């Protein structure tokens, strides 16, 4: 069912799918950079939500601002306002659904957002799953190369056209350079499941290894041959790892 959330005048397009036999847990799923909440049967978050509902976990998926069917322009998107999006969804889940427990699962940049949101709300988040979390976005911004874009990191332009037709805002990169990703994430001390592919050529698995080092209660799974999309033969493994972790 529709689960739209308003944040600073923007409507975020969300969907709530209750479990047939609910166990009181709601999982909030977060997509990556230029992605969406999933609109096809082959989408990672769609498949993940399906598996979670089978074990009694209701799911909420949403499009970040400037993505999918949500309001906003991609050029204005930053990790900071995606955290604000996620916080608004978290509050809506609390107030509208009143679950016993809330879990967060994020892929790529959505993993960064989930990790930082859990750091801000360690008392509210039950479990955390980070799939190919893109914490290297900070290092990339500092170095001056982001998803195929090359720029002077000390003089970032206001707009950077991307190959996919989207335009990345310079403020995204300026804020990315200063994000306290791991410093914030480590404030969460609950159970964490880290999943990364060793063939990920977009986000080095060192990002997950570093998360594993700063967390107090984490498990790191490095999947042989898996790409950043965690698709192909690796998808079944990813779905099983995440579902087993949430159900345990």
TrEMBL record:
Pfam families: Hydrolase_4 (PF12146)
A Gene Ontology cellular-component term: membrane
Top-level lineage group: Bacteria
GO biological process terms, semicolon-separated: acylglycerol catabolic process
UniProt GO molecular function: monoacylglycerol lipase activity
Serine aminopeptidase S33 domain boundaries: 29-140
Descriptive protein name: Serine aminopeptidase S33 domain-containing protein
The species this protein was found in: Lactiplantibacillus xiangfangensis
